């Protein structure tokens, strides 16, 4: 169907907007199940330089379900002593930092256990407006 649409470009602005919205919805429904929440704990310091735990929150995307690899931003896991990953199905798993690049702001985290296969998300997991603004809901903000 996508190849048919590519050969029949929208004829006016309204059709172009609808085409864009439908394309975003279609693409998002395929990737939304791979979005995860990542929580971290790092050791910071209070006003008197005493060690205190600092919690962080970010997101990531599963890019290798068979081996449990997740791509996230380096700033999400920077100096983390503890990494936890909340999967879309509600399971939580400890994460291990495999590698990071602060210049590119990318990091790879690995989790144990089998991951579900990527499947189409339910439309409830997406918030779409008529202006094609979209938010993919992560497991923590259902």
Write the layout of secondary structure elements.
Layout: H1 2-7, H2 13-31, E1 35-45, E2 51-64, E3 69-72, H3 74-77, E4 82-86, E5 92-101, E6 106-111, E7 126-128, E8 134-136
Antiparallel strand pairs: 1-2, 1-4, 2-3, 3-6, 4-5, 5-6, 7-8
Would you mind describing this structure in some detail?
It is a single chain. The protein has 142 residues and is an alpha+beta fold. The protein folds into two domains: 2-31 and 121-141, no CATH class; 36-111, Trypsin-like serine proteases (Thrombin, subunit H, Beta Barrel), CATH 2.40.10. Helix content is 20%, strand content 39%. The chain has three helices and eight strands; from the N terminus they run H-H-E-E-E-H-E-E-E-E-E. It has helices at 2-7, 13-31, 74-77, and strands at residues 35-45, 51-64, 69-72, 82-86, 92-101, 106-111, 126-128, 134-136. The strands form two sheets. Strands 1-2-3-6-5-4 form a six-stranded antiparallel β-barrel. Strands 7-8 form a two-stranded antiparallel ribbon. Strand 7 and strand 8 form a beta hairpin. The longest helix is centred in the N-terminal third of the chain and has 19 residues, at 13-31. 18% of the residues are buried.
CATH architecture of the largest domain: Beta Barrel
Report the C-alpha radius of gyration, rounded. 19 Å
Q: Just give the CATH class of the largest domain.
A: Mainly Beta
Mean pLDDT: 78
User: CATH homologous superfamily of the largest domain - what is it?
Assistant: Trypsin-like serine proteases
- Counted by DSSP, the helix tally is 3
Helix content: 10-25%
Low-pLDDT segments, ≥5 res: 1-5, 117-134
- What is the name of the CATH topology of the largest domain? Thrombin, subunit H
What summary fits the major beta sheet?
Answer: 6 strands, antiparallel, barrel
Strand arrangement in the largest pleated sheet: 1-2-3-6-5-4
User: Looking at the structure, what is the overall shape?
Assistant: elongated
**Series of secondary-structure elements, N-terminal to C-terminal:** HHEEEHEEEEE
Oligomerization state: single chain
How many β-strand stretches? 8
Intertermini distance = 30 Å
Q: Give me the secondary-structure category.
A: alpha+beta
| Strand residues, percent | 35-45%
Number of structural domains: 2
GO molecular function: serine-type endopeptidase activity
InterPro entries: Peptidase_S1_PA, Peptidase_S1_PA_chymotrypsin, Peptidase_S1C
Pfam families: Trypsin_2
